[in-house]
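User: I'm putting together a small comparison set for a docking exercise, and I want a reference complex before I start. The sequence is below, and the ligand is PBG. Could you produce the 3D structure with the ligand included, as structure tokens?
Assistant: Of course. I'll restate your input first, then give the structure tokens for the complex.
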Amino acid sequence: MRRLRKNSKIRDLVRETSLTANDLIYPLFVKDGLSDSEPIHSMPGQFRLSIEGAVKEAAEIADLGVPAIIIFGIPKVKDEKGSSAYNPRGIVQRTVRRMKKEFSDELVIITDVCLCQYTSHGHCGIVKNGMLLNDQTLEILKKIAVSHAEAGADIVAPSGMIDGQVQAIREALDQSGFSDVAIMAYSAKHASSFYGPFRDAAHSAPSFGDRRSYQMDYSNPNEALREVELDIREGADIVMVKPALAYLDIIYRVKSRYRMPTAAYNVSGEYSMIKAAAEKGWIDEKTAVLEVLTAIKRAGADMILTYFAKEVAEWMRNG
Ligand code: PBG
């Protein structure tokens, strides 16, 4: 076997999986009312951005050859219903409008459709007596998705694990004249400890309880496949597995079984673990990141949402 490992050119020739900037989606946090960017302490190298800061960042991303960003909004006001999530003048809507004007079709704009950053209790829907109400939440998700489409989003990405959310959003988009807006469904999104740094970044930790009555139990691969199958039937264009690293088996099964465009979310905790170990000098950041992202692709992901996207694209450009 070693004959084909002899030098780097031979290794290039026989490589079965290759990672390129084209595979990556860069998440951006945009915070309402911000004038300067704020560093996110639990995610070294990541920032809460103003609208102008986000536009600047997006321009750099597009220039590096990363095809897409996903936008997370952090609103000024939270309430029981998360009403700033569907405000046409909300932070995500204003950011998307501004970016579409700036980039047109040079950058794919994806928006996260969820309520946890916008609700006073930090849950991903309407809550009554401590329980998340499914169908009442769907009504709000429809409004959010349509408001993002009106602002110019190319793809909306419902992340709340609310039953029926893909179908509800598909119908709402079609009825509002946005049949060309695609849905990237967070289909198999697991209740995970690896979202910790994100919740700090987006101020979206639940104020009571946890998310286990809507996000999936990580012990259940068959249930993950059922979730994906339902989302495909409901009209998802892209299905997602989240997190990625502890879920390579799920990514593999989803891709093998459904052959759908498949995304994997290399989440905040997966990012910060590498950053922290690298800061301590315990691992080499660049080689670790490339190993992890290549493994996620090898498992079957066509695209990876990752906070490393910008760095990776820079490495690829500069060698
Ligand atoms: C919102 C949402 C979360 C993430 C993406 N969308 C947080 C959560 O479900 O608590 C996590 C992303 C990450 O950790 O990088 N529902």
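The radius of gyration is 19 Å. Residues 117 and 203 are 6 Å apart (CA to CA).
User: Thanks, that's exactly what I needed.
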